[in-house]
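Researcher: Let's continue the batch. This sequence belongs to Histidine--tRNA ligase, and it's 493 residues. Same format as the previous ones, please.
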Amino acid sequence: MSKKQKVFRPKARKPKGFRDRAGRELLSETRMLARICEVYAAYGFTPLETPAFEYTDALGKFLPDTDRPNQGVFSIEDDDKQWMSLRYDLTAPLARHVAEYYDQSPKPFRRYQVGTVWRNEKPGPGRFREFTQCDADTVGASGPHADAEAIMMLTDAVLAAGIDAKDFVVRVSSRQIMSGLLRHIGIDPDDAERAAGVLRAMDKYDRLGAEGVALLLGPGRKDASGDFTEGAQLAGDQIEAVLAFMACGQVDTQATLKAMASLIGDDETGREGLADLTSIADTLAALGYAPHVRIDPSVVRGLDYYTGPVFEAELTFPVKNDKGEVVQFGSVGSGGRYDGLVERFKGVRVPAVGCSIGVSRLLAALTDRGGEEDEAPLVVVLALEPTQMIDYHLMAREIRAQGMRAEVYLGGSGMRAQLKYADKRGAAAVVIQGDDERSAGQVTVKDLILGAKLSEEIESNAEWRAGQPAQVTVPRTDLVTAVRGTLAFRSLV
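Model: Same format as before. Here are the structure tokens for Histidine--tRNA ligase:
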């Protein structure tokens, strides 16, 4: 007798750094994104969708190594031996799209896009390898007015998403001014490695404070886990100048701009950046955005491709982290000017500016503030008689036709199991028509939530009869009216 072959059954599991999402979270995200995209569209931006995969050399930030270009991105080799990678943001694909259709596209080119992006990085608490971005960019527009518009649009998008005006601020600075600062302290901004070391240290000012940044600007810093980060090896007077620049932000915009000017000397690039920042501040103030915006030299932005103004939308209210500690929520959106991305393809400098919403973080903030969306109430029509399925579907269709959610139970179980199913689905009510109701030309509408509430609170039959009943039996012709009344009463309790 032959031995029975064992059937392979894969383990049901997700890859690390990925997650399943469902229900209220997805509903809340969909509605939030719709409100944000309405803002983008109102500014005249047009939607664009680009492929999930791009050729790896087109992404720019991550180039192929000798074996596999998987540093930071997920990559595969195509049939023609070219490497493709899942996009890590929406900006690099935009640059490719503009370059590919440069002659056919209007200038400036204005698009918004919502899409999934992927990062081949170590996952951690709240840090996933797959997430959603929501961007809007103008390509082909130079000058501070396009930057001011991007900041206004980001502000309007955060407000439209549901964040109260008092709970966030958009902080603005300039990479040009930072270049002026670097030259002023004797560092060539074109020395990419050394300049990047200084900017990376500056970018941690909010998290590490002056003391931590001073260590990263100097010999280096050991964190709580014992890991050591090599510093930028600046001298003491250079560190003091950088820290003075980071700390010169004040509530008064003109005072901040004056303090920044005093710390960059006569550097031409820095002065150009200061003039642009002044123009941006004046435009925002004239259009009523001054209460939402603050000039803040501590804003750096980590990406290397920024060439001018940079900004972040930061939530200011406190929340508790995973350890129960009270912290500031932080950034939920950002952006800036990047005039060199399309140049990689075209060989000519093409100005561009854009903003990006951190969808997951903004949604988490709205949930924390009680802004999560609820699904519309669900009504389940019980299927008690297999021969009457057409009638059950007719009932559900009548309810849906009046703008309510309804489904017919299709599982094939008995009444008790059907009620449990409706309860697990979070249904607000069920429609019941068995043989007795059908013979009498009636239906019963049972409020599941109110029924559960009453069963906990009512102590006697007399009290039950005197109160609002958890179910009503009405003529079949009054089904929709009874369902609407049941759902309306439930919303009041």
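Researcher: Any comment?
Model: The longest strand covers residues 309-320.
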